[in-house]
Amino acid sequence: MKILYGIQGTGNGHISRAREIVPLLQQYGEVDLLISGTQADVSLSQPIKYKFHGFSFVFGTHGGVDNWATFKIMNLPQLWRDMHSLPLSQYDLIINDFEPVSAWACRLQKVPSVSLSHQCSFVSPKTPRPAKWNYAEWLFKYYSPTTYHIGFHFERYDDFIHTPVIRSEIRNTETSNKGHYAVYLPAYDDKILLSHLKKAKDVEWHVFSKRQKNSYQEGNVRICPVNNEDFNKCLASSAGLLTGGGFEGPAEALYLQKKVMMIPMTGQYEQRCNALAAAQLGVTVVGGIDEYFDTQIANWLANDNEITVDFPDETAQIVDNMIKTYAKR
Length: 329
Hints:
This protein is α/β, with parallel strands linked by helices.
């Protein structure tokens, strides 16, 4: 059996999930990996068959997307060419994690494909989102359209939605609480984070930054380059995680029974949806880093509210069912 697995390369969550899923897929046949996007800090250990520029956004420094930088790296003619040039007839199963090149190539060539992603959970109207409709609903529908859907979210909001894929390295890690807090807020400049976190003087902060290649310490705040192994160790021994409105990072922190505060990116509808769902679990969510942030941080640090989640290890069963249901025979 030949399998094509298309993975979104913007952010770290998609590739982190793929690190768990790829070895499972390889038990069923030969797996070719396709990645498009430009903003990931983690990588796969397996070779990449196809690497495309794709259609990505660029993190800004004040809590949102850098629209000008995003526009500058956009290459729609190349995206069009990549969609039309991708050979698909050799594959028995095509899997997509919110990756547009392979998704649209499948649609153009009338080849079925399967979403295996967090984003496809928004196909269901039962998945939490703000009451006011947002144009980003079109992105959920048309950015990487597929034939079938297998979604992941904080809860089983619909019959095709499963709880998060928690990586084996996280499930098998030993946890402790050394009192420090892990921070991953790639849409904020390090200096902005430093100016606020230094005020919580009794707390040690470990900030993982996309903008640094070397670690340095300033007061009670340590700035570190993003590194998967270092981040996992820091999170496992932390008191909590301060992060954006992503999905995989908060899910893993909740699984490890860590306190979580989420700050969804400005203008990023999916992150607002994630934050709303997390808030329903009891996670602290704030709108941004503003004049109220120092008080909000202090209140969060003082809050000992524990959140219990049930994220069973069912990834192997999901993959097996997908192969049996959707692969060519």
